[in-house]
Design a protein that fits this description.
With about 190 residues, this protein is an alpha/beta fold. It is built from 8 helices and 7 strands; from the N terminus they run E-H-E-H-E-E-H-E-H-H-E-H-E-H-H. Helix 1 packs across helix 7 and helix 4 packs parallel to helix 6. It binds guanosine-5'-diphosphate and magnesium ion (MG).
Amino acid sequence: MTTHYKVVFAGSVGSGKTTAIQALSDIDVVSTEAKASDEVRKIKRTTTVAMDYGIMKLDNGDQVRLYGAPGQKRFDFMWDILTENALGMVLLVNATAADSVAELRLYLEAFRPLIDKTAVVVGVTHADQGGVAVRQRLIEEMQRQGIPPCVMDADARSRADVAMLVKSLLFSIDPFAGAAAAPTVSA
Ligand SMILES: Nc1nc2c(ncn2[C@@H]2O[C@H](COP(=O)(O)OP(=O)(O)O)[C@@H](O)[C@H]2O)c(=O)[nH]1
Ligand SMILES: [Mg+2]
């Protein structure tokens, strides 16, 4: 029997949600992009207003359905819908953001019901472009909030990096699923 898992990707505009799901998905990603509103036009011309959707196929035939949540706070009504029955969350935090810790806080707070029920793994994106000791500061903030701090650098363009985020999440929730998704370790 094929088991379907649902994982939600959250994070600010430009953190790498669409890129990450594209890097990981075994199907063509369905993305709803629209002209960016004024607030984000300075950052990029289009942005995800509804969601991204892709599928990662595990070795044992199980599937992980990947949902990218819209980044902007004004779409937060979508967040509840998207997190229904989700197995957990991958939160992408841009290392070059003006205040990465504030971004982390915003999404942890918004998705706290899901996080408390399941788990969260934080991927620090754009780490190659700067951001000093961001990972350590994010870990400290999560510890302060009593959330197990699973934080790692991850380039959203790298399938291996993004796969590692999802695998870590599956491992922390369900070791059997994690094992099915485990990276092949060469002897
Ligand atoms: N240099 C670098 N660029 C990245 C990284 N992660 C994502 N990007 C780029 O950041 C841009 C925004 O990513 P996107 O997926 O559109 O962000 P979204 O708004 O969260 O969906 C894209 O051009 C990505 O290629 C990273 O770790 N390093
Ligand atoms: Mg996007």
